[in-house]
Design brief:
Blueprint (H helix, E strand, L loop, with lengths): L1 H23 L18 E3 L7 E3 L8 E6 L4 H15 L4 E6 L3 H11 L5 E5 L3 H5 L7 E5 L5 E6 L4 H17 L1
Parallel strand pairs: 3-4, 4-5
Antiparallel strand pairs: 1-2, 3-6, 6-7
Length: 175
């Protein structure tokens, strides 16, 4: 009869340990299965001009950032100044506008500035999903061969820019 009391206690202890383990993990460190693989193939109209196309083929020959963003994303607004700084340093930044309203996306870029050389309009979110995006913002660093070398989940802070993004770009540019 006393053994019956130990079963719920054991389940409680196991669940508590699992919860503590989960809370101690950094959600920005989710591994991506796309690291060291070619960028997913896509070809979409751009936010800036629906008659122009942005395709994955344009992501070769240079070290570049691909940023998944949306006008409805508060965190995207938080990182926007950092993206503009990176673009000002000559770093090519391309966008994938994720599940957004086209008019809202255009207005957002006009209001806050456009750090993107091109931004694909992914209204259904299909391309974002193929990139393995969990949400917005997410940023990828692509090497000259079109291979994904780094994934950053969440907004890029100044510290992230200085300590992670810029060093990875500098290393890839020397290869």
């Amino acid at each position: 009869m006393k053994m019956v009391y130990f079963i719920p206690m054991g389940i409680f202890i196991a669940l508590s340990a699992l919860l503590l383990f989960g809370l101690s993990n950094d959600p920005r460190r989710v591994p991506s299965p796309l690291i060291n693989k070619p960028v997913p193939t896509f070809s979409l109209s751009t936010v800036e001009d629906q008659n122009k196309i942005f395709s994955s083929k344009e992501l070769t020959g240079q070290v570049a950032l691909v940023n998944i963003w949306a006008s409805w994303c508060r965190s995207c607004r938080a990182e926007h100044a950092i993206l503009e700084r990176l673009a000002g340093k000559g770093i090519p930044i391309y966008g994938i506008n994720y599940k957004d309203n086209l008019a809202d996306a255009k207005n957002w870029l006009q209001r806050y500035g456009n750090p993107y050389r091109k931004s694909a309009y992914d209204v259904q979110g299909k391309i974002g999903i193929e990139w393995g995006a969990y949400g917005t913002p997410e940023t990828f660093i692509i090497d000259t061969q079109g291979i994904i070398r780094y994934k950053h989940i969440g907004p890029i802070s100044k510290e992230d820019m200085d300590n992670i993004i810029l060093p990875v770009i500098a290393r890839l540019r020397t290869l």
